[in-house]
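Thread amino acids onto this structure.
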């Protein structure tokens, strides 16, 4: 076990990526303090085996992940790997649930929230539904994710003007975390988190896996059944498992 760069978060290294060992409740507490103190912009990455494999293949992605203030074990495979190698995390911390937990806490403080990403229709419906579900939260702004580097400055200026406490970003796995990493200091938001397909679920565009699949830790399989086009990406899961079993003695020793 090691301490993260924040100095207080216990982590386990999975191929050099520092995964938090905190429970969901402890994670929310750390991020609550980050918002209230406003001292350090936190980039929160909700990581799974697919992202670990991508980082191992791409040094730029690895750099982004190692620089994040907090990486939570979103994927079941990460939880398994840490346990298999003898340095377990407390529990899985799904990004979708973490988003909602932060909004529940944020209602007590009337936190401002900015939503960035997905399509114009999805992001608008997400804003409406979250405002209904958490009426004490302030949705201070939202915009779709269809913009290029030439518009980054304008997008950042809009977010800074809105001055949110939380920024949730859904821009695709290849762009989401690098974009946050590149601009988090300019954004000046206390906590920024990549949320993947969460807006699609919140807006009603797609359905989350049924409770049974969640309890069996088979949400990935449910997504594969609904979206066979994900099969290529999903190949990273067995590759990750085989690699961990082969490298068991060294998985958590890489820094």
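Threaded sequence (255 positions):
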């Amino acid at each position: 076990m090691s301490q993260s760069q924040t100095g207080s978060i216990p982590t386990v290294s999975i191929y050099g990526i520092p995964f938090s060992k905190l429970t969901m409740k402890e994670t929310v507490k750390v991020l609550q303090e980050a918002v209230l103190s406003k001292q350090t912009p936190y980039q929160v990455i909700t990581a799974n085996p697919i992202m670990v494999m991508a980082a191992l293949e791409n040094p730029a992605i690895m750099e982004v992940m190692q620089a994040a203030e907090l990486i939570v074990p979103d994927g079941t495979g990460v939880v398994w790997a840490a346990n298999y190698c003898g340095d377990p995390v407390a529990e899985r911390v799904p990004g979708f649930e973490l988003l909602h937990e932060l909004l529940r806490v944020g209602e007590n403080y009337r936190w401002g929230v900015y939503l960035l990403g997905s399509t114009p229709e999805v992001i608008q419906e997400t804003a409406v539904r979250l405002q209904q579900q958490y009426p004490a939260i302030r949705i201070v702004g939202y915009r779709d994710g269809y913009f290029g580097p030439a518009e980054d400055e304008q997008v950042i200026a809009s977010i800074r003007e809105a001055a949110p406490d939380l920024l949730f970003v859904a821009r695709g796995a290849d762009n989401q975390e690098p974009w946050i990493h590149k601009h988090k200091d300019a954004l000046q938001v206390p906590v920024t988190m990549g949320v993947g397909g969460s807006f699609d679920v919140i807006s009603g565009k797609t359905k989350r896996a049924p409770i049974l699949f969640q309890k069996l830790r088979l949400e990935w399989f449910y997504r594969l059944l609904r979206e066979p086009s994900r099969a290529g990406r999903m190949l990273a899961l067995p590759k990750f498992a085989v690699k961990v079993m082969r490298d068991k003695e060294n998985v958590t020793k890489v820094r």
